[in-house]
Design goal:
The complex is a heterodimer.
Chain A: E1 7-8, H1 17-26, H2 35-43, H3 47-74, H4 78-81, H5 84-89, H6 97-129, E2 132-133, H7 138-159, H8 164-182, H9 197-208, H10 215-234, H11 237-256, H12 262-281, H13 288-308, H14 312-329, H15 333-356, H16 368-394, H17 399-413, H18 417-427, H19 440-466, H20 469-477, H21 482-497, H22 499-512, H23 527-533, H24 542-571
Antiparallel strand pairs in A: 1-2
Chain B: H1 2-10, E1 26-27, E2 40-51, E3 54-65, E4 69-73, H2 80-87, E5 95-100, E6 103-104, H3 109-118, E7 119-122, H4 134-145, H5 150-163, H6 179-191, E8 197-201, H7 209-224, E9 228-232, H8 236-242, E10 245-250, E11 253-258, H9 260-265, H10 270-279
Parallel strand pairs in B: 4-9, 4-10, 7-8, 8-9
Antiparallel strand pairs in B: 1-11, 2-3, 2-5, 5-6, 10-11
Helix pairs in contact in B: 4-5, 4-6, 5-6, 6-7
Classes of the chains: A mainly alpha, B alpha/beta.
Chain lengths: ~575, ~280
């Protein structure tokens, strides 16, 4: 089997050692063998291999027969098919399903844009370096997404009673494709129509499915389409990245509402494009612009505080303003301008989210598979930076940081997750006011984040150790600061080295969300309890629901694993 | 230690002989500069370095003048690499004083950074940053340390890549280049900070034979342009041709110092003769 490195090197460019190795790795190793020759060489080449082939072949056949008979003959899938929405959304309020539709479409579009961003960036680097990117083959796509496709397809086939779920799935695929295509040049004018398909399908879904109707949803879909067109016309990397991130955040807010610190995430999502624009005009900007911007924000902020009193958001913006002022006083124009821009962005997004003022669906109503994905996603997003900081602290030269980080990591890693989840329920309240507003789900996410961060820290530490001392020395010899050496030289290489281990941790985190059942949160697995409490399914289809849930977890985990392998190869452009 | 110092002191009158007129000058110690403007760029005084109980450098006294090219040779384990790694504080010396362009190395990180900014280094194993393109490798330090705008840093970097004769590789990754090309990128990278001195730590030892010449040629051009260089190498041809002074080290000590002519034709010390007989 030849190793697929994700790109090939034309023979005439095979200059360096790596290029040679790549060219060799991509060369066919075995020549062309007929299936018959392959079977003889691999299954029947020795007498004991022949016996092994027969014994295990028989076991596989018998096992396969029983599995297939169960799946297609004896199993009674009604327990699943009658309760598909329950499995997916649990106790989520039916009347608010529009938000789910909007969220899924936005998230799909976001994924499409971000994949397109990664692909466009890799292609630009590869083009400049004279490396050919191998296009994603259908076979690779099936190997990666086949499992999830089968899960979604089987769910629809047995459980979809109306056209709505089908439309939703088609719409999500269309949104993903449209997001991806928006990042590429589309020479054929008709191909540009693809940018409008998610909008058409979303509108169709909302109109056709009679109990789903919401003017705001149409508006959001139209806005998203306008953004896709803009991205496609301008098509710079920072804009694509920002568009992808903003779409994701807005998609999340379709469900969570615009309260909380969503505005901070929105501002962060806009950073790539804002800094890009800033970089282009920076040299022509008089320094006074920064002061005027900060002054305007301060005045507006003070007015807010006088009207509404000081709150969390105001406090955060005040801190940002203070940081910007300090940076500007130290006359460091680059960083000061950037912080200034972020202050203005944050404040603007705070005003925007305040103006939209969309009330969220209470966390306690989120459940089913949707909840598993949200909690896993949130925990991954939060645990990664925490784990990173813990790993860096553990290698720090400051003893206090080192000991505290080591203690945290070793204590958490020695404690079962279940006990952490239970502690989260009972202990976090001790540190808060008696009118503790935290929901069970927030506590659970905190516990899972704390738990995973300790493991991620150890994984990252392994990665940091895998980068040779020569890199640090070269950075030192150039006069780079220790922080710059870590950030620019060590971390990028270290993280790339640990992608497989990291994704393994994320997969285990995703599966661990089934433990939410312990603290009474209804998730994909514990929906079964509701199903089997129903009159019709008391003691009926217990194996079937288990198999269905297990298959769902497997399909998503497997896809994450395959995607990580692809990602590892992609990020390997030029390295090795 | 005091004994050696005394010897050095009594030999001081030797330094009053005019520099550079005798081609086979033999020096009493390494503090006399050759082929330079007379200003001191690097000054080591009584430097000791220990790795645990092992003493890697024993009371090293050495001066390197501006625009001087000093080649350090010696058997492996003699402390050559440690010597130049102490100059930019990749290793901390335990005793003595090291002064680079008038700034004395101390534990103060700002002090160290200042010296590192003025001191380029080229490593045996290149130590290019594999995740960055060639151009990014060269522009990283000017942009991060000197806060130069991207466009200017890239223009300077392209000039430097032109100078080491690989401008067409700018957008490639180090892994795509041959060893010789990588080492030339490393030289361009160290030049990008416009250093006052460049330290070469066996720059050709990890190269295939056919690539050594291109790197040595680059170094010769650099020397001809007036760059102050300290070169640890086993390339005797380079030492003979380019060096203003050759320093022979053994067991952590400077054994013999001289012009290449003296050094290769007429070595004085037994250890030098033995070493040269083994490698020539």
């Amino acid at each position: 089997m030849s190793i697929d490195w994700g790109y090939t090197v034309p023979p005439d460019q095979g200059e360096g050692n790596i290029a040679h190795a790549l060219a060799e790795a991509n060369a066919p190793r075995h020549g062309d063998r007929t299936p018959k020759e392959w079977i003889r060489a691999n299954l029947f080449n020795t007498w004991y291999n022949t016996i092994i082939t027969f014994v295990f072949g028989a076991v596989a056949l018998i096992g396969g027969y029983y599995v297939l008979r169960f799946l297609f003959v004896t199993a009674q899938w009604e327990a699943v098919s009658d309760n598909l929405e329950l499995f997916m959304l649990g106790t989520y309020p039916r009347s608010e399903r529009t938000r789910i539709v909007v969220q899924m479409l936005m998230m799909s579009g976001s994924v499409g844009l971000l994949v397109g961003y990664a692909r466009a960036r890799a292609r630009r680097l590869a083009d400049e370096a004279g490396i050919d990117l191998i296009p994603v083959t259908p076979r690779e796509a099936i190997a990666t997404y086949g499992a999830v496709a089968v899960f979604v397809g089987a769910s629809l086939a047995i459980g979809a009673r109306t056209i709505g779920p089908y439309m939703l799935v088609v719409g999500c695929v269309a949104a993903g494709v449209a997001g991806f295509m928006a990042t590429r040049p589309l020479p054929n004018p008709f191909a540009k129509l693809i940018l409008f398909t998610p909008f058409a399908i979303a509108a169709g879904t909302l109109t056709l499915v009679s109990d789903l109707n919401n003017g705001a949803a149409y508006l959001i879909a139209a806005g998203a389409t306008a953004m896709l067109v803009l991205v496609h016309v301008v098509r710079t990397l920072p804009l694509i990245l920002s568009a992808g991130l903003v779409t994701g955040v807005v998609g999340f807010q379709a469900l969570s509402g615009t309260g909380g610190i969503g505005w901070l995430f929105l501002a962060a999502a806009l950073v790539p494009v804002a800094f890009d624009v800033l970089g282009r005009v920076q040299d022509n900007l008089p320094p006074a612009v920064g002061w005027i911007g900060v002054a305007l924000v301060t005045v507006a902020l003070v007015r807010r505080v006088i009207v509404d009193g000081i709150g969390f958001a105001t406090a955060v913006v005040f801190v940002l303003v203070a940081v910007a002022v300090v940076a500007m006083l130290r006359s460091n124009p680059g960083p000061a301008l950037r912080i200034g821009v972020f202050v203005v962005l944050s404040f603007a997004m705070w005003l925007v989210t305040g103006a939209v003022d969309l009330e969220g669906i209470d966390w306690k109503d989120w459940s089913g598979l949707h909840l598993n994905i949200v909690v896993a996603g949130a925990s991954i997003v939060l645990a990664f930076p925490v784990g990173l900081l813990l790993a860096l602290a553990r290698r720090s030269s400051l003893p206090v940081l080192r000991y505290m980080s080591t203690a945290y990591i070793e204590i958490i890693r020695g404690v079962p997750l279940i006990s952490l989840l239970l502690m989260g329920q009972f202990f976090i309240g001790f540190f808060l006011n008696s009118d503790d507003p935290l929901s069970n789900i927030t506590r659970a996410t905190t516990a899972i984040t704390m738990f995973s961060a300790a493991y991620i820290a150890e994984i990252v530490r392994g990665g940091l150790q895998s980068v040779g001392d020569g890199q640090t020395e070269a950075g030192q010899a150039l006069g780079l600061s220790p922080a710059a050496i870590t950030r620019l030289l060590i971390l990028p290489q270290a993280l790339r080295n640990v992608i497989p281990a990291m994704v393994g941790q994320f997969i285990s985190l995703f599966k661990d969300t089934s433990l939410l059942a312990i603290i009474g949160i209804i998730n994909f697995l514990s929906v079964r309890e509701i199903v089997h409490a129903q009159e019709a399914f008391r003691g009926v289809g217990i194996a079937e629901t288990l198999v269905y849930v297990a298959f769902g977890f497997w399909a998503i985990s497997f896809t994450m694993s395959r995607e990580s392998q692809r990602l590892e190869r992609r990020l390997g452009v030029g390295v090795r | 230690m005091t004994n050696q110092e005394d010897t050095a002191m009594t030999d001081q009158p030797d330094t009053s002989t005019p520099n550079g007129d005798a081609t086979d000058t033999v020096f009493a110690d390494a503090t006399q500069m050759m082929g330079s403007s007379g200003e001191v760029m690097i000054d080591l005084e009584g430097v000791d370095k220990f790795f645990g109980d092992f003493q890697a450098l024993k009371n090293i006294d050495m001066k390197v003048g501006k625009q001087e090219v000093v080649v350090v040779i010696g058997p492996s384990g003699s402390g050559k690499s440690t010597l130049i790694r102490c100059i930019n504080r990749l290793e901390a010396h335990d005793r003595g004083r090291i002064t680079v362009d008038g700034v004395e190395l101390s534990d103060d990180i700002r002090n160290i950074q200042e010296i590192r900014r003025e001191t380029g280094m080229v490593f045996q194993s290149f130590n290019l940053f594999p995740h960055l393109t060639v151009l990014e490798n060269v522009t990283l330090a000017p942009r991060q340390v000197r806060r130069e705008p991207k466009a200017r840093a890239e223009a300077v970097a392209m000039d430097l890549l032109e100078r080491v004769k690989i401008p067409e590789q700018a957008r490639k990754f180090p892994g795509q280049l041959s060893g010789g090309q990588q080492q030339r990128v490393a030289i361009a990278r160290s030049l990008a900070m416009n250093p006052k001195v460049i330290l070469f730590d066996e720059p050709t030892s990890a190269l295939d034979p056919e690539m050594i010449k291109e790197v040595l040629d680059t170094m010769k051009e650099l020397a001809a342009s007036g760059m102050t260089m300290i070169v640890v190498t086993h390339e005797m041809g380079f030492a003979r041709e380019v060096a203003d002074r050759v320093v022979f080290m053994s067991d952590g000590q400077i054994v013999e110092v001289g012009t290449p002519e003296h050094f290769f034709e007429n070595p004085r010390e037994e250890r030098t003769k033995l070493f040269l007989s083994q490698i020539l």
